[in-house]
Design brief:
The protein is mainly α and 156 residues long. The chain is built from four helices and no strands. The protein has helices at 9-31, 44-68, 79-108, 112-143. The two termini are 32 Å apart. One of its GO terms (molecular function) is heme binding.
Length: 156
């Protein structure tokens, strides 16, 4: 399948929406230990709803990625860097789907092992997202190749 020159508006919108939801879910999860004073039906389900939303938005992103494709990496990137970028993108998709999935098992089925898996996946997702962000900033400010423009952030 030929690769598109840029991401579609829908792909860009879903990307940033998922980023925002994951950040909010992470910030909320950091505070969940303090939620014990709140009624159970008031606090934890909100985190779960965020996770469920991320899960379904990521399935939509995955479908778009599979059927529409993604732009190729910059030509100037070395082959190893292109392979790492491709692998990290697929890892982000897998982790952003598996993390809320495991959280759902932990919360709705009260499955303790799933909670442990959820914590591990959350950490891996955040580390992979941090590496992804660092790579994007490297392209933007060190290489100055305008890579962020493909995600709706034009270089000025």
């Amino acid at each position: 399948m030929p690769r598109p020159a840029s991401y579609s508006r829908l792909q860009i919108l879903l990307h940033w929406l998922v980023v925002i939801l994951i950040v909010v879910a992470f910030l909320l999860s950091d505070q969940m230990d303090d939620w014990e004073d709140l009624p159970a039906d008031a606090a934890l389900p909100f985190h779960g709803i965020l996770g469920l939303t991320v899960f379904f938005l990521m399935l939509a992103r995955l479908a778009l990625r599979l059927f529409r494709g993604a732009p190729p990496p910059p030509e100037a990137d070395p082959a190893w860097q292109k392979r790492v970028a491709e692998a990290s993108h697929w890892a982000l998709y897998a982790l952003a789907i598996a993390t809320p999935w495991s959280g759902g098992f932990a919360f709705y089925l009260r499955w303790e092992e799933a909670a442990d898996v959820h914590e591990l996946l959350k950490t891996l997702l955040l580390l992979t997202a941090a590496a992804h962000t660092a790579a994007a900033l490297y392209h933007q400010f060190i290489l100055k190749d305008g890579l962020l423009g493909r995600m709706g952030l034009e270089r000025r």
